[in-house]
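[Discussion] Sanity-checking designs against the backbone

I'm trying to build intuition for which residues belong where. Below is a structure token string of 346 positions. I'd appreciate it if someone posts a full sequence so I can compare it with mine line by line.
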């Protein structure tokens, strides 16, 4: 074998795999679900074929038009109103699992309210005998623990489940896992996020789940709040939510990856619900000691121009693609964003 033939043989195998078209669906068509549809629209190797919201489904194995879905949702409240391919139904997720046979993977852009909701959706996939790749952008440690408890059932069902694959947990947790490699010992991982959105109604679940982290609130209180109550609370803070010491699964993911103990990981941030500009630059700081005994900090900072939606949906589909490679190799069960590299979707 000549030296010259090896790289070309390898690259042709790799490109044929990474160039395959992957048909995917999105569950939940709120802020992140709609952004996910827009992220996918220009992609050559991943296509949106299915979507569900609380009141309906839309499915076309040849591909959905993102603008048409978004217009239907914003006008009538459901993707079920999309001409020809949409349908208003109850139990929309169940319907999509059973009918959208071309979808090889789903991004779960659903609210996790109550805190057990996402795990119950995953059980629906298992019980339906569905096989493929599922990706979530779960935030709470206790919610991810429920996913990890489903490991054996997911593995037995032939589902590759990628958990914590948004921005934080997700992109920043993965960056921390890479940054940790310079050190012999990790002292701390500090995640600080800044999110700016023009209005809270565009991301109702995200904001309710953030309120649930505020002192005096919890998941059930936040879930029970009416839209008017959320708006009234935001009036008292000038639209700002300042959060610290959040229960975020970055801690569990980095502990599972063997990088540090969960108590060494802290997550906090500021959300401005009245201004799309980021109130501060989202970053992760990883402090540790090198093998020479030096203490140092690596900082990975996201560009302020990148929106929350870009930093969640991009990684979610990158991990979906990575999960599909695992699935094709017969590797099933639960994986976190800190133990698998995302793949880039063109
Ligand atoms: P949203 O409130 O804007 O939209 C939720 C969507 O889910 C709506 O379309 C609604 O119709 C649908 N839905 C609700 N119940 C349903 C049901 N039973 N069946 C089918 N569809 C249903 O939500 P969002 O603000 O886009 O947030 C989605 C999730 O993403 C939240 O859980 C949030 O915490 C998470 N998130 C994660 C990160 C991260 O970095 N990891 C960042 C932001 C948001």
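Best answer:
Here's mine. Compare freely.
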């Amino acid at each position: 074998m000549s030296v010259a033939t090896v790289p070309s043989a390898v690259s042709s195998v790799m490109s044929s795999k990474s160039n395959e078209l992957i048909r995917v669906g999105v569950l939940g068509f709120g802020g992140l679900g709609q952004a996910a549809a827009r992220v996918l629209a220009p992609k050559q190797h991943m296509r949106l074929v299915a979507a569900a919201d609380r009141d309906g489904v839309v499915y076309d194995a040849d591909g959905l038009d993102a603008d048409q879905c978004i217009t239907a949702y914003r006008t009538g409240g459901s993707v079920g109103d999309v001409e020809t391919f949409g349908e208003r139904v109850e139990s929309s997720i169940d319907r999509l699992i059973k009918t959208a046979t071309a979808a090889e993977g789903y991004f779960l852009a659903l609210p996790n309210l109550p805190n057990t909701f996402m795990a119950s959706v995953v059980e629906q996939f298992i019980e339906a005998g569905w096989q493929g790749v599922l990706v979530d952008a779960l935030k709470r440690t206790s919610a991810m623990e429920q996913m990890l408890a489903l490991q054996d059932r997911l593995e037995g069902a032939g589902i590759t489940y990628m958990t914590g694959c948004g921005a934080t947990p997700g992109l920043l947790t993965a960056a921390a896992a890479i940054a940790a490699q310079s050190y012999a010992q990790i002292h701390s991982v500090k995640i600080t996020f800044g999110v700016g959105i023009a209005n809270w109604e565009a991301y109702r679940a995200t904001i309710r789940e953030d309120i649930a982290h505020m002192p005096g609130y919890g998941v059930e209180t936040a879930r029970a709040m009416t839209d008017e109550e959320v708006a009234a609370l935001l009036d008292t803070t000038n639209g700002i939510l300042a959060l610290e010491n959040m229960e975020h699964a970055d801690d569990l993911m980095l502990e599972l990856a063997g990088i540090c103990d969960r108590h060494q990981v802290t997550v906090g941030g500021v959300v401005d619900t009245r201004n799309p500009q980021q109130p501060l630059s989202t970053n992760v700081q990883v402090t540790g000691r090198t093998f020479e005994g030096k203490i140092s900090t690596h900082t990975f900072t996201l560009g302020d121009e990148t929106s929350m939606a870009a930093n969640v949906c991009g990684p979610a589909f990158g991990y979906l693609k990575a999960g599909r490679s695992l699935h094709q190799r017969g590797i099933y069960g639960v994986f976190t964003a800190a133990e698998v590299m995302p793949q880039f979707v063109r």
